[in-house]
């Protein structure tokens, strides 16, 4: 988990794919946080990505290193976590939350963690390596 968090923190734009009735959808995400051994992401419940993850919690995301030599794929299911301490921890860890959402109590703000996931590290020079999340 730590090395996945490090990769996604060092390379902070990742692309997360969801399943929708029209087919796969993908978009850039940036926020990642650890709590109690789980990796958390955020969105808001006005977005299609939220509705898609509620209907089908399976996702896959990918990010590359700045030099393009290594990349990661993470897949699993998401579980939404409405505990206020998660929102408070996120606000404390990333400055963009205040201008974007004002308060951890904002009812459109959502957090979810990866459940039953796996991450695979790739490079042009080594065999892929998969770790469980
Ligand atoms: C660099 C970058 C990081 C982003 N990070 C997030 C994020 O962590 N969570 C989020 O909900 N949207 C984030 N966005 C915005 C989403 O990509 C955007 O709202 C997207 O349209 C959501 O997908 P949807 O249209 O399928 O709902 C980010 C955008 C960029 C450019």
UniProtKB/TrEMBL annotation:
Q: Which InterPro entries match?
A: Pyridox_Oxase_N, Split_barrel_FMN-bd, Stress-Dev_Protein
Q: Please name the Gene3D superfamilies in this protein's record.
A: Electron Transport, Fmn-binding Protein, Chain A
Matches recorded under Pfam families: PNPOx_N
Q: Which residues form the Pyridoxamine 5'-phosphate oxidase N-terminal domain?
A: 2-105
| Protein name (record) | Pyridoxamine 5'-phosphate oxidase N-terminal domain-containing protein
Q: Tell me which species this is from.
A: Methanimicrococcus stummii
The organism's taxonomic lineage, starting at the top: Archaea, Methanobacteriati, Methanobacteriota, Stenosarchaea group, Methanomicrobia
């Amino acid at each position: 988990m730590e090395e996945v968090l490090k990769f996604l923190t060092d390379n902070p734009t990742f692309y997360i794919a969801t399943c929708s009735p029209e087919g796969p959808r993908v978009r850039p995400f940036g926020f990642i946080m650890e709590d109690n051994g789980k990796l958390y992401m955020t969105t808001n419940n006005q977005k299609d990505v939220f509705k898609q993850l509620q209907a089908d919690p399976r996702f896959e995301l990918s990010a590359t290193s700045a030099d393009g030599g290594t990349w990661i794929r993470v897949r699993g299911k998401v579980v939404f976590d409405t505990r206020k301490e998660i929102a408070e921890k996120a606000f404390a860890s990333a400055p963009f939350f205040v201008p974007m959402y004002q308060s951890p109590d904002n009812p459109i703000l959502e957090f979810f963690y990866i459940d039953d996931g796996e991450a695979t590290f790739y490079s042009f020079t080594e065999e892929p390596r998969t770790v469980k999340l």
